[in-house]
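Hey team,

Filing this mostly as a record. A colleague (T.K.) asked me to run one chain through the structure pipeline before their review meeting, and I want the input and output archived in the tracker in case anyone asks later how it was produced. No errors, nothing strange. Just documentation.

Input sequence:
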Amino acid sequence: MSRVTAVLGPTNTGKTHYAVERMLAHRTGVIGLPLRLLAREVYDRIVKARGPSVVALVTGEERIVPNRAQYWVATTEAMPEIAADFVAIDEIQMCADPQRGHVFTDRLLNMRGLHETLLLGSDTMRSAIAALVPGVQFLRRERFSTLTWAGSKKLSRMPPRSAIVGFSVDDVYAMAELLRRQKGGCAVVMGALSPRTRNAQVAMYQAGEVDYLVATDAIGMGLNLDIRHVAFSATHKFDGRRMRPLFPHELGQIAGRAGRHTEPGTFGVTGDAEIPEEGVIAAIEEHRFAPIQRLMWRNAALEYGTLDRLVTSLEAAPASEWLTRGREAEDMAALKALRDLPEIRDRIAGPKDVRLLWDVCRIPDFRGISPAEHTGLLARIFDFLHDRGQVPSDWLAGQVDRIDRTHGNIDAISRRLAFIRTWTYVAQRPGWVQDESHWRDATRAVEDRLSDALHAALTQRFVDRRTSVLLRRLKQKEALVAEVNDKGEVAVEGEFAGRLEGFRFRADPAAAGDEAKMLNRAAYEALRPEFHLRADRFYNAPDTELDFTEQGGLMWGDAAVGKLVRGDEPLKPRVQAFVDDEAGAEIADKVTRRLQHFIDRKIAAGFEPMIAMQKDEALTGLARGFAFRLVEALGVLPRQQVAAEVKDLDQEARGALRKHGVRFGQFTVFMPALLKPAPTRLRLVLWSLTEGLDEFPESPPPGLVTIPNIKDVPEGYYTLSGYRPAGERAIRIDMLERLADMLRSQDSRAGFEANADMLSITGMTLEQFADLMQGLGYQAQRGLREKTRPAIAEPAPQPGADTPGDAPLTEEEPVLAAQKRAEWDAQQAAAKAAADAGAEAGADAPAAEGAEGAEGAEGGEAAAPEQEVFYTFTWAPRPRAGGNRRPRQDGDQPREGRQGKGPRRDRTSDETGRPKGKKGKPGGKPQGAKQFSARPPRADKPIDPDNPFAVLAALKNKS
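Output structure:
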């Protein structure tokens, strides 16, 4: 006679392990488990002990039955009705479950082993089992560890090896996302997942790849995990009909998963979950719950005569007070819905058809779309089985092919996985498909692919492998290995952590919160040797690898390693290195020294003439003071600002300054060597630092003769850039001085016109040149006249100009100037020839004009003569306070009443330094064009053969 033993007790008592040991002590055995996942776990354990040839696995969607099967592992619904020496039913308290309870109650009442039967479950079933199972023996197994209340904790402060329980998919996903950002990720376990997916997620948690598990209440049954704390995110759940609070024994079943073997466990709440009453907390800690008073029951003795008789038998009332009819199950609801369809009733001809329909109705609604959708699918399957005897292979192949797609998000893959479970169930039913072995393998393969894809999608979304790897390494206090590639990407233990820009680590911007802190900690721990190696390379790098930006930044290649800050003197800026504090003071000092050496050498090379002048001890008196002023201005001074100082300089002082490259121009005193692009760029940065500007103006593009005159630029910018504003544009100061030399030979009182050399040197049109002259203090009078000679060709527009007609020259081209002069001479010659020809034909002009007039009267009006625009420029300085007064020339003496009379003539010497007399007397200038000099009188001296200008002047005087 079979011995029935009820092994009862709290969770974490090893009841399932005990049942497996007892089954293996018999020749044959059957064990029923509540979850497909748990059934697979037990199957693998027995296979390891006895081998696959004697172990069978039977579930709703999986069937592995060897020919010599001795031990059967099944879900409770799929337990085979065979004669076995041993039978065990796990989680027997599920008899009280409203949905599945009737199946467990049927197994409790009817399943028996030939020699031994074990009923495994909670103490709450003691009274019910004692009343319904005669001769049962009770065996209590105590919990191996203690379970205590830990209160409420924020999710961000959840201890490692915790399980957070939610009761909806949205809650599970939200908590998993938060744990990914803050803790590196978590595993996800839900009842809707396939066993393969759940196994993969559990394996990831058990292996320590993640320290957190987010699950539904499915975790409460049979999953033996290394969980130290269980936190409830809610204490209410939707049971299919309404929201209700969790019963104390349900809370205890889930919380009991905390604690492994003899290690203690804790439980609590998180988020907005209500804290349970003290009595409930005490009951969970002491494993004391109210006994179960009613078990769900449904009649197992079914009548298949007609559909109505089948329904009546299913709705039969129980005979025991311990039993009660449970909630209408899915299969019962589907049967009633199909019974009401005329096309189904017409096909029911006898008990065989009734039984077939009932078997079809027991297909679980894995898809969960809607009862109507599920009923429609069942009707289609019944049609195939009734009319053809099997589900057509081509139709089934089409259904499976539409599902066999692994792309998409988590929800899409989960839906496909639910669909394939339906066809997996159909393929497992004997006789329902043509080639059972093929379709079982095919549907199982699709389910496996979708399960793997779902696991990968869950892992990608809710697990940051980089963070989890680093956390595990840090927790184990292992040395971390960092690598930096040529792009500056930092990989710690093979996981991307961020970028090393110079000597500053920039963590991956995707990381945030605790994850970012942990990532920085791990990266800096691994980057310490890299900082030292990089500092050595930087310190020994040549200056060609370093540069400065126009905003004062200091670059090493493409990486910013520091910036310039204001120093005590304009030519002595200081540097501020960009080095992370974690790199250490030694690295920061080394980088700072190297940057200071670089900028000091850059200034010494760029301002070499000016620095040499500053250090020249031969300069004394006024010359030394003027040199100091020039150094303060970084080599460029508007002459009007130092007019008095220039006047006070004698010839010897000027000569000493000219030896250092100082040029005393009519508008600017400057050092031509410092107008090159590199010194200009550096000068603007140093000036911006000295002025304390928030945004440094950039230097103009190199080679431009004129640039636009923008009104809102900082004062002094154009001068430091090497330009002088005049009208709508600013002209380069060295080209302005060349233009001033040309203007000295013109009669500024009577007026003069622009020649080809003037337009060529400025690269301007006539209209632009007129605006420039007005900006320099001249009056430009516009006029029209009959064109008697070819118009002066305007310079060709050049790239980089603001408008097609506003294109400055990019270089001082002597060849271009010569071409302009040649064109000018050719035009003058052509105009003279035309005038001579007109004089010779003067006698015939009246007749010709009369003839032309007659023709005009008969044929229309005569064409108007072509007109040309010209400008006459005269000196018209503004009042002294205007700021645009023409600068006084060297040697000019102040006189009253000269305003509006043109530039002052130097009556003491000409350009060669020879004395000049009064007008019309020996030594004076001939009548005609006035000439002016910007040089003070100086004694005659021998001509320097190495000076081309001196030789040219001598030849001019000789002629």
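Quick notes for T.K.: Residues 33 and 75 are 5 Å apart (CA to CA). Confidence is low (pLDDT under 50) at residues 796-818, 839-860, 881-937.
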